[in-house]
Write a structure and sequence with these properties.
The chain is an alpha+beta fold. The chain contains 16 helices and 37 strands. A nine-stranded mixed beta sheet has the order 13-14-12-11-10-4-3-2-17. Helix 6 crosses helix 7 and helix 11 packs parallel to helix 13. It is globular, with a radius of gyration of 26 Å.
Length: 647
């Protein structure tokens, strides 16, 4: 496939888009000239999770892939991805965090459930499915969990040496699952399912190598690696998997998840190792989930992370799948059965933000029931052009707002920094490299009291303190635990509390959920263990992230207000999008002079004569000299186009 030809613009004439380009005959596809580089553009495809959760079968998947090939591939949607638990038997008692229902081989590696994936029988894995997908002109992807399955650990399977063949041997013995699995570092939101492996051991590396070499042998083109990022951060496993993928004889695009509590610093730690990385919790079809993406998208853009160097190519901040069309529910045991809860304006806002923030576009709805409205939205040629080819993408703060309510208008400049919004503080996590993490200290050694010392301009009413749990009469398990975590802290919110503080939620969070730590019965696992370093950082033993107190806006503040984004096109055009997060109609305006200041080639706009067009309304606004302005529906976007030239 080849992309459209690039036209050179003259020195005195150019086109500026306020987000709308009429490309009705344009079908976007990935430029074949870039095939030697991974993820030259934000990847695009379909993922089964939003419509099937974990229950999809081979017949359902191939039927969906055939539709993607015919209807979405011409628009660049080239990946079809089976999301999690393809190895779980769909029988009574099986659910997302059940134990003992998975199909594993003698080496502890997961294989597709043969009842749902009949072509996998005989140890063939996904080989036949991948071949069929490739014949459709598509690329095939799977979801995998970090580490090793609890089922393999309990069975104490041998570790395979995929280099020499047979069992992995070192120090005169064969190595097994219980030698490499770290039981205390079970995936917090799937604690019965998976645990980390010790990548410092040769056997731990051998196990991971055997997994990803097998995936390559099956013909996998895309890996979504879960429970290794965000509050589940496992930089050691991400780093080693990235090294293994480099060694394979076929290109495999590498995506990591989830993205709860991700910061620009964390993104910079992983971006060169991967091609996609989630930056929020799971995105579902609620307005609060959509609105939760604006701040983190702004922060990643401001840190120059969009299209930064990645694994054998580029990397892209991932805003998660698009839950549009016909869907299932989070954690469900049934397939698609309901319509998307977002109204059309909210769906347009989501698709517009995902496109101008250059997120990967992974459609999640049931393609077998793909309605015309959803199809036209996800294949909109202007949005796809922006998503692949625009540059200088950033939030644009210099806009003026007039709210329309009961025939009264109130106009004021808008700066989306939230300076006047009241906040409260919540316990959270961040990279230990962040300066704000170096703020904990021992206040009372005898009581085991440590306190957060950062007050800055927003002082807390009283210091936030935690207390180290006092040692209790020790069982054999606790003696072993104390040896493992000698010198670490088991923290409680007060000296008499019966619960301990864990870093990560035991439920998989959605985008609107803020990770605030969890209080639960004290348990001997890494999620509840902390280490206070001499530099003032309080590091969690599960994720390696550090504790902070973050100012948290009220939920209504996060999901209201207005936003604007700006970008330049490959032909010299400039795209600007307005987003109305309010519940009432709002008129949003921007001056051409302010737009010029935000662009690298601002001289192109200075003194130019422009005409404007808006995409969603289809209106032409005629000559535009000073500013652009439009009334935007509640939770809706506006996407303009400016055609400008110098006299």
């Amino acid at each position: 496939m080849t992309g459209p030809s690039v036209e050179k613009t003259g020195s005195t004439r150019f086109i500026v888009f306020f987000i709308v380009l009429n490309l009705s005959t344009f079908s976007l596809s990935i430029d074949a000239r870039s095939s030697q580089q991974h993820a030259s553009f934000p990847p695009r495809g379909w993922n089964s999770y939003d419509s099937f959760c974990w229950t999809i079968s081979e017949a359902e998947f191939l039927q969906s892939a055939e539709i993607v090939s015919k209807r979405l591939l011409p628009h660049g949607y080239q990946y079809v991805v089976v999301d999690y638990l393809w190895y779980r038997k769909k029988v009574e008692g099986a659910y997302v965090d059940s134990l003992g229902f998975d199909v594993i081989d003698e080496w502890g590696r997961l294989h597709p459930d043969p009842a749902r994936w009949p072509s996998s029988r005989g140890g063939k894995g996904f080989t036949e499915v991948a071949e069929k997908v490739h014949r459709m002109g598509l690329k095939f992807g799977i979801h995998v969990m970090g580490g090793i399955s609890t089922q393999a650990y309990n069975a104490n399977t041998l570790v395979m040496d995929s280099v020499k063949g047979g069992a992995y041997e070192e120090s005169g013995r064969q190595w097994r699952a219980k030698d490499i699995g770290i039981k205390e570092k079970a995936c917090v939101w799937m604690s019965h399912g998976f645990m980390s492996v010790n990548t410092k051991l040769g056997a731990g590396k051998a196990f991971l190598r055997s997994l990803y070499r097998q995936y390559a042998e099956w013909g996998i083109d895309f890996i979504k690696h879960d429970c290794v990022f965000g509050t589940d951060f496992n930089i050691e496993e991400i780093t080693y998997v990235s090294e293994v993928l480099k060694e394979l004889d076929r290109p495999v695009l590498y995506s990591i998840s989830p993205g709860t509590s991700v910061t620009p610093t964390m993104a910079k730690e992983v971006s060169q190792l991967v091609n996609m990385y989630r930056i929020t919790g799971d995105d579902w079809d609620t307005w609060k989930d959509v609105a939760a993406h604006f701040d983190i998208s702004r922060d990643l853009s401001a840190s120059s992370m969009i299209g930064a160097r990645g694994l054998q190519g580029k990397s892209w901040p991932d805003l998660d799948m698009l839950p549009l069309g016909w869907l299932t529910d989070q954690g469900s045991n049934v397939g698609p059965h309901r319509a998307c809860n977002l109204n059309l304006e909210e769906q347009k806002s989501q698709m517009t933000l995902w496109s101008i923030a250059k997120s990967p576009l992974m459609f999640g709805g049931d393609v077998r029931k793909l309605d015309d409205t959803t199809y036209n939205l996800i294949t909109n040629p202007t949005l796809l052009e922006i998503n692949s080819y625009s540059s200088n993408n950033k939030e644009f703060p210099y806009i003026t707002v007039t709210r329309v309510s009961r025939n009264k208008h109130k106009s004021h400049p808008h700066h989306p920094t939230g300076n006047n919004i009241s906040t409260k503080h919540a316990f959270g996590l961040t990279s230990c490299k962040e300066p704000k993490a170096n703020t904990w200290s021992i206040v009372d050694k005898n009581r085991g009291q440590i306190c957060w010392n950062r007050y800055s301009s927003q002082k807390l009413e009283k210091p936030f303190c935690l207390y180290n749990r006092k040692a209790l009469p020790a069982s054999d398990e606790e003696i072993k635990h104390n040896q493992l975590y000698q010198g670490k802290l088991h923290l409680q919110t007060n000296e008499k509390a019966e619960s301990c503080l864990g870093a990560s939620s035991k439920q998989k969070l959605t985008s609107k959920d803020y990770s605030r730590g969890t209080l639960s019965p004290c348990k001997l696992d890494a999620n509840q263990m902390w280490e206070l370093h001499s530099n003032g950082t309080l590091e969690n033993c599960y994720s390696g992230l550090c504790a902070v107190l973050n100012p948290v806006k009220a939920a209504e503040a996060i999901s209201s207000g207005v936003r604007s984004w700006i970008a330049t096109g490959r032909r010299g055009e400039v795209y600007v999008a307005f987003f109305n997060l309010n519940q009432e109609k709002t008129t949003i305006s921007a001056k051409i002079s302010d737009i010029a200041k935000a662009l690298p080639n601002k001289k192109n706009l200075e003194g130019a004569s422009c005409t404007s067009h808006e995409l969603w309304s289809g209106k032409d606004f005629g000559p535009t000299k000073d500013s652009v302005s439009i009334q935007v529906e509640p939770h809706g976007p506006a996407l303009f186009v400016l055609h400008c030239s110098h006299a």
